[in-house]
Amino acid sequence: MSNHSDAANKKVCVLLVDDDHDVLGANARYLRLNDLTVVVADQAGTAIERLRADPVDIVVTDLRMPDCDGIEFARQVREITPLLPIVFFSGFATVPEIVEAMKLGAVDFLEKPVEPDHLLGKIRSVSASFRSAIALQRQALDISDTTVPLRKRVRAYEKYVIESCLLQHNGRISCVLETLDINRRTLNEKMNRLGIVRNPV
Amino acid sequence: MSNHSDAANKKVCVLLVDDDHDVLGANARYLRLNDLTVVVADQAGTAIERLRADPVDIVVTDLRMPDCDGIEFARQVREITPLLPIVFFSGFATVPEIVEAMKLGAVDFLEKPVEPDHLLGKIRSVSASFRSAIALQRQALDISDTTVPLRKRVRAYEKYVIESCLLQHNGRISCVLETLDINRRTLNEKMNRLGIVRNPV
DNA sequence: GCGATGTAGGCAATTTATTGCCTATAATCG
DNA sequence: CGATTATAGGCAATAAATTGCCTACATCGC
User: Fold this and answer.
1) What sign has the CA pseudo-torsion B1, B3, B6, B9?
2) In this structure, is the CB of residue B152 within 7 Å of any atom belonging to strand D?
3) For B164, which of A143, A164, A165 is closest by C-beta distance?
4) How far apart are CA B20 and CA B24, in angstroms?
5) CATH: 1.10.287, 1.25.40, 1.10.10, 1.10.1060. Which one for A147-194?
6) Chain B CB contacts of A139 below 8 Å
7) Is some CB atom of chain B closer than 8 A to the CB atom of A135?
8) CA atoms within 13 A on the CB side of A25
9) Of A102, A133, A141, the CB nearest to B99
10) Architecture of domain B6-114 in CATH?
C-alpha cells in the first residue's frame, strides 16, 4: 500500500479511527479523494491490528472509543511505532487527558466536529513537518506520573533509539552497528526481542 | 545545609505567577518552607521584568491573567529563555489553549485548585528532569554525527528516569519501587551502578 | 527502651544478555 | 557462473543482572 521505498510519489497513508461509522466513512472518502491512502478502524483493537499489518504515516483517532480509551490506545501505538505522529480529536476531553495525549507525542488535538478540510490540512502539515526535534525530545524525555515499569520504559527507549538510527541510515544495519557501537549479534537479538521490523531498503 | 552536596545546595528558583494574591502567597510560602527560592509576580508584565532581572529555573503560571493571556505570556518567556520549563495551571482552559500551551513547550498543565504538595512534587520532578535533559539530549537524541554507544544512552536514560521518580516522590524509595514496578534489590543495585545519590529527605 | 518501619547490602541461585564461531541465504557484480 | 557483500541465526561459553533470604542500622512513635 504505502510503499516507503519510493519517496517521490509515495502517498501519505493515514490510519483513521472513529467509532462513528458515518463520520468515519465521510472523512475517509474525503481524504481518499484528496490523494491520501486511508486505512480505517472503528475501534482500538482493530486499529492496532491494522497498524501491525501495514505501516502508516500518521494516526488520526477519536479519544473516546468503545473498547479502550484513546490514551491507552496511544500507548499501544507508541509501543509498536514510537515515532508515529498521532492526531487526536474529541468532543469532550478533560485537561489531564489532553495533557497526557500531548505528552505521549500527540501532534495536535482537534475538537469535534472535525471539518474534513481542516483534517486534510492538518494531516498534510503534520506529515510534512513531522520529525521536529521537539516532538522526539518530548517523547523520549517524558516521565509521566503513572505507574509504568522501568523495564518497559527502557525497552521503549531502546526501541526508539534503534528505530531512529535505522531510519536515519535507511535501514542499513552496518551503519547502526557503528553508530550505536554495538555487537551485531546483540543488535539482532535486541531487534528480535523488541519486535523491530526490518523494512526493506 | 552542610549535609547537602554541592549540587543539592543549589536551590531551585521558581517564578510563580498568579493574580490571586491569597493563593500566590500561600503557595509561595509552602514552596519556600520546602527549600525552594520563590520569585512572585501577580501579572504577566511584572513576571517578564522579574525574569529579565533574575534567572529562574522554572516558571509556574496561571493561564488567565488580568493584563495578558497565558499563551502570549509563554511566547514572551520563550523569547527570553527558549528552553525554560513552564508549568501552567488554570480553572477553565479550552482545548486549543491547552494544546497551544503544550506546543509552546509547557511541561505540564495543572487544574485549579492546585495542591501545594502536588505543586512541589511537580516542580522538583520538572527541574530535575530539566537538569539531566540537556545531558541526556546530547547523549540520547543527538543521533546525527557522534557515535554514542547504545549502552551509554540506555544507562543515561535509566538514571534519568530513576532520579526523576525519586525527586517526584521526595526521595521516598518505597514509592519509586511501586511507581517503577521494580524489585527493591534491583533498584538498589541500579542506583549503585548508575551512581545515583540518595539525598536526605 | 522497644517494636515498627524504611532502608542498605552480603551472598548465592537463577535468569537473562552478550558475543564469538560457524553456517546459511540473498542480492549484486563482474 | 563464482566471488563478494550484507545480513540472519544456531549453539555455547561467558558475563551481567535479577532477586530471595537474611542481617544490620537508623528513625520514630509510644
Assistant:
1) negative
2) no
3) A143
4) 6
5) 1.10.10
6) none
7) no
8) 3
9) A102
10) 3-Layer(aba) Sandwich (3.40)
B103: which chain A residues are within 8 Å (Cβ-Cβ)? 102
- Residue B98 to residue A109, Cβ atoms within 8 A: yes
Length of chain A: 201
Q: What is the pTM of this model?
A: 0.53
pLDDT in tens, B143-175: 444 567 788 888 888 887 887 787 777 778 888
- Go through chain B and tell me how many residues it has: 201
Sequence-ordered alpha helix ranges (H) in B34-115: 44-53, 70-80, 95-103
Residues in chain B with CB shorter than 8 Å from the CB of A109 are 95, 98-99
A170 touches strand D (CB under 7 A): no
pLDDT tens column, B45-99: 888 888 888 778 788 888 887 777 888 888 888 667 655 778 888 887 787 788 7
Nearest Cα neighbor of B11 from B54, B56, B53, B77 is B56
